[in-house]
Structure formats: structure tokens, C-alpha cells
Amino acid sequence: VYAEEEEDRDDGVDWDGLPPGADPFGTNKKGGRERGMRKRNQVMTFVKHLRALLSLRGRREIKRCVDFGCGTGNVLMTCAATFPEIDFVGVDLNATSIEILNSRIRKSGLTNVSAVVGLIEDGDTFGADCALALHVCGSATDRVLNSAVRARIPFVIAPCCVGKVQEGGMRSLNRMRNDLISLDKIEDIERPRSRLMRAAGFDFEAYMSAATLADWSGHQGVDPSDPNEPLAALPRRAKSAIEADRGEFAREHAYDVTLHKMPAQSGIRDDVLVGIPL
């Protein structure tokens, strides 16, 4: 299911040379060094895949990348500093996160990045040439995927919790979303996403069972990130199945899709979908 990753590849992030506020390690207030390194690994993954997209011959020119569900801008800031020739826009429905991000942008001095309060459903209005999304919860991942497919643009998406794909799974986020959205923007997302998985006999109930299992994050004495932990094997397979289904959905809409793993010590939500329109 997963693409083979090159070992010992230099992904070209000059952490020491980044402007103030552009290194996710420096924004980490609570988790210590371990969490800071985990955030760096996640961001480095996006830099790697974006660089690969930019190197493709005959590709559509990428002038603007939109980071959907950008939060306080960890992916956005590092990418903007690394790729100064590209315009980066962060979109999030949390006004407080956008306020923090705009403060980071001002302190950094970067001029190729901006942030707005908005909805993934409005993705067509941001003029994106590439869609990015790191750990947007539940059905928000599917909305980013749908937005990219409609616009026929490449995407780099690292899904988060999948058991919350039903509306209402994250109450605080849904309250903010409901404040911004109009009824004509609400889209019905069929699950499973792909014809392939539906043809294989998966119905909605089976899909949701797999999605809930995929969200298992361990319990006392059990490390879900340990590859040798037997209790984690089935949840990992369930998560892989959910992401493979999303990837197949894009393939069925004429995309070349690869599924990747982030490097070790990136956290348990380490799947990455990369799609390129054919």
C-alpha cells in the first residue's frame, strides 16, 4: 500500500536559518523536545513532498499553495520560508489560531504568506495551485480532498483522526464551522469513498467500524507507535484501509496517488496522501 521511501535523503530544511516563528520546534510550549522534534518531522514531510511536486516536468505551475486547516501555521511558515517563490495562504475556521498565525507572520518578516478565517468548502475561492492539509480532523480531510479534486490541483494531505468523520464528531469545531457555513455549502460525503471499496463489500457501517478502530491511540502501558506492539497491529491496518480508500477515490477521479509514511518519531497519525492530476 505504501510507497517506498528513500533513506537518508536531505529534505533541505535549514532549521537554523529560518526566520523567527517559522520553526515549529520553537513554537512548542508544552511538549518539550520530543514534541518539538515530532512537529519538525511532520513539517519536513510536507517540504519533501512539495519539493517533489515542484520538480515534476510538464507540471502545472504552482504559484499559490493553500494550507487548509492551517491552525497556527507550523506547515505554512516553514514552507513559506523554504519556497519564497510561492505564495502561501493559510485557511482555518478558528479565529484565535489565525490571530496567532498572523502575529507569527509579522514577526517573521515573510512577505509570501497570509492567513484568513475561512472554510475548506470555500476552497475554490482561494486560487490554489496546490492543497496542503496536516491533521485536519475527520471529514475535514475529505473536504480538502474533494476541493482539490474539483479544482484539478495536486495535494499533500496527512489525515488525522478518522473516527470523527461523522458530522458532530468534534463539537467545538463544528460550532465554529456552523457559524461560517451556509446550507448550500454542506456536502454529503459518501462512505466508503471509493467504488473499489464499496464493490469489495464494505458498507457504511463497516467503514465506520474501521474508522473508529483506526483512531485507537493506546492505553496505559501500551505504546501505539511501537511497531512491535501486537495490540496496535489491527488499528494500523484499519487506518491504512481508510487512507487507501481515500487514495482510490482520487484515482477514480484521474489522479496519480501515492500513500506514504512520515519518518519515525512523527506521531501515530503518520500517513500522507500525495495526489497529482493526470
UniProtKB/TrEMBL annotation:
InterPro entries: Methyltranfer_dom, SAM-dependent_MTases_sf
Gene3D superfamilies hit by this protein: Vaccinia Virus protein VP39 (3.40.50.150)
A matching Pfam family: Methyltransf_32
CC per GO annotation: cytoplasm
Stretch list, region Disordered: 1-37
Acidic residues compositional bias, start-end: 1-14
Superkingdom: Eukaryota
Domain Methyltransferase: 38-167
Protein name: Methyltransferase domain-containing protein
Source taxonomy: Eukaryota, Viridiplantae, Chlorophyta, Mamiellophyceae, Mamiellales
